[in-house]
């Protein structure tokens, strides 16, 4: 069984306190310094991580604002481009209308000139009948030709997106 020896117990306690005292004088200070150093290092790392997180969040917000600004600028440019395209389309259409009017007027003048020349050169009844027939043929062919020319020019002047 277990026997308790009071002398051994006293020497064990004395040895324990001596080792404890020696360790507290020799090892406790370096151990405490190491623990404090480690604690300080961890605290600094946490503060650095916190600062870096705040900086990252700030940068993220700045990037979001830049993206929003870029999107607004893109929408503005798209709108301006659409307005310019519409203006150009209107100008092209107006130009085609003016050109078709000019061509029609020129054709009318040419028809009138030809008609006057034919009437002046032909004096007989047969000539009057020929002039009337020729006038009908010329008017019909010019009307069809003018219409085709106007339609073709109008289609060519239209923007590609409208043709499709």
From TrEMBL:
UniProt-listed Pfam families: ATP-synt_B
One Gene Ontology MF term: proton-transporting ATPase activity, rotational mechanism
Sequence intervals crossing the membrane: 6-28
Topology of this chain in the membrane: Single-pass membrane protein
Name used for this protein in its record: ATP synthase subunit b
Recorded coiled-coil stretches: 32-117
GO CC annotation: endomembrane system; plasma membrane; proton-transporting ATP synthase complex
Protein localization: Cell membrane; Endomembrane system
Domain of life assignment: Bacteria
Subunit structure: F-type ATPases have 2 components, F(1) - the catalytic core - and F(0) - the membrane proton channel. F(1) has five subunits: alpha(3), beta(3), gamma(1), delta(1), epsilon(1). F(0) has four main subunits: a(1), b(2) and c(10-14). The alpha and beta chains form an alternating ring which encloses part of the gamma chain. F(1) is attached to F(0) by a central stalk formed by the gamma and epsilon chains, while a peripheral stalk is formed by the delta and b chains. F-type ATPases have 2 components, F(1) - the catalytic core - and F(0) - the membrane proton channel. F(1) has five subunits: alpha(3), beta(3), gamma(1), delta(1), epsilon(1). F(0) has three main subunits: a(1), b(2) and c(10-14). The alpha and beta chains form an alternating ring which encloses part of the gamma chain. F(1) is attached to F(0) by a central stalk formed by the gamma and epsilon chains, while a peripheral stalk is formed by the delta and b chains.
Function: F(1)F(0) ATP synthase produces ATP from ADP in the presence of a proton or sodium gradient. F-type ATPases consist of two structural domains, F(1) containing the extramembraneous catalytic core and F(0) containing the membrane proton channel, linked together by a central stalk and a peripheral stalk. During catalysis, ATP synthesis in the catalytic domain of F(1) is coupled via a rotary mechanism of the central stalk subunits to proton translocation.
The family this protein is said to belong to: Belongs to the ATPase B chain family.
Entry keyword set: ATP synthesis, Cell membrane, CF(0), Coiled coil, Hydrogen ion transport, Ion transport, Membrane, Transmembrane, Transmembrane helix, Transport
